[in-house]
Amino acid sequence: MDGKRILLIVGGGIAAYKALELTRLLRKAGIAVRPILTEAGARFVTPLSLAALAEDKVYADLFSLTDEAEMGHIELSRSADLVVVAPATADLMAKAANGLAGDLASTTLLATDKLVLMAPAMNVRMWEHAATQRNLAILKADGVQFVGPDEGAMACGEYGPGRMAEPAAILEAILGALAQGRSLAGRRAIVTAGPTAEALDPVRLLTNRSSGKQGYAIAAALAALGCEVTLVSGPTALPAPAGVTRVDVESAREMLGACEAALPADIAVCVAAVADWRPETLGGHKIKKAAGAPPPIVLTENPDILATLSRHARRPRLMVGFAAETDNVEANARAKLSKKACDWIVANDVSVAGTMGGDENAVAIVTGAGIERWERMAKGAVARRLAQRIAEDFA
User: Fold this and answer.
1) Residues 343 and 206 in one domain
2) How far is CA 18 from CA 11, 22, 136, 164, 179, in A?
3) Are residues 173 and 53 in the same domain?
4) d(CA 249, CA 49)
5) pLDDT in tens, 178-199
6) I need a labelling partner for 251 at 20 to 30 A (CA). Which of 33, 36, 85, 188 fits?
C-alpha cells in the first residue's frame, strides 16, 4: 500500500477520537493521510493531534486564502486514491446525499471523482430516522461504500445501531477498497439507463416506470474502478454520477445512435428499459378527443439495442444485458441470452414491490456457464458487486 493516499474527513461526534487511531493505523500500513477536520469535529479532536499522527497539514476552512492557494478544495478532492469519512455524522451524510456544499468537507465530497467510504456514527434514533435511511439509500445508489455502524452502547446512554466501526475494521474496509482500486483503469464502458420515451404527438409520450437508479449506480461503480464511462440516459431526474460522461436521449433510436457514437468500448451494460415499440407516425398536432371510438395507434418495432451492439462490427468485448421480467424470470433470461448474442444477462423480477423505481433489487446473473443468484440488496450494492465481477472478468 506504499504510495497510496487517503483523504480523511473527520466529522463532529464523540467517535471522532477513533479517527486518531485510524490515522495511526493507516500510517503504519504505509498509507499517506491528508485530513480535513470539520468545525464540529474540532470540538472533539484538535488539529494538532490529527496533524501529528497524519504527518500532514490539517485542512479546515473553505475560505482560507492560504489553504486555497496551497491546496484548493478541487485539488484536495482529487488528490487521494480514496476519500474516507470517519465519523460520518447524520449531518455530513445529509449534505452529501443532497449535494450541499457549504463547508470544506461537503464541498470536497461534491467535487470528488474518487470512491468514497463512510463510517457512520450517530445516536440510534438518528440512525433509524427515515431521513437518515433515505440519505443512506441515496448515497449507496451514488456508489458510496459503507463500513458499519456497529450495534452497542453509546455515549448518550442508549443502545443500538449507530456506533462507529472500530478503527481496525475501518482499516480493513479501506484496504479492500484500495485493492479494488482502479482495476478497470484504461477500460471504456457504455451504460444505458432509465426509460425511453416515444412521442405519440407533440404532447404525449409512450414510456415506462424505469427510474434509472440501477443503471446510474452501475455507471458510478464502474467509474469508481477507474473505467471511462459513457452513460446513455433516457429521461430521469437523477444527477450524473461523479466522473461519468452522460449523454441524454429520449427515444430508443436516439439511444442506439448515442451508443454507437460511444464505440469503441470494452464493456457495454444495457440496463435501460427500452421501448419495444413506437408509434408508426408522429402527429404534427395534439390528437384531439373526439366523439366515438379513440383514434387507432399503429405501432412499429424499435431497434434492439442489446442485440445490435452484440452483433456490431465494433462489438464490446463484454456485453451485459438486463432482463426485467414478471414471470418465468430465469427461463426468459436464458432465452434472451441466446437470442441477443450477449455474454451475460442480469435478470430481475420487476413484479416484486420496490424493484422498478425502488432502491433495492434481487438479481440472477445468467451466463453460458450457469446461473448465479444474488440476495436482495440495495441497488448500489448490486452495482458494486457487478462492477467487481466485470473487473474480475478483465483481470
Assistant:
1) yes
2) 11, 6, 22, 8, 23
3) yes
4) 51
5) 866 678 888 999 999 999 999 9
6) 188
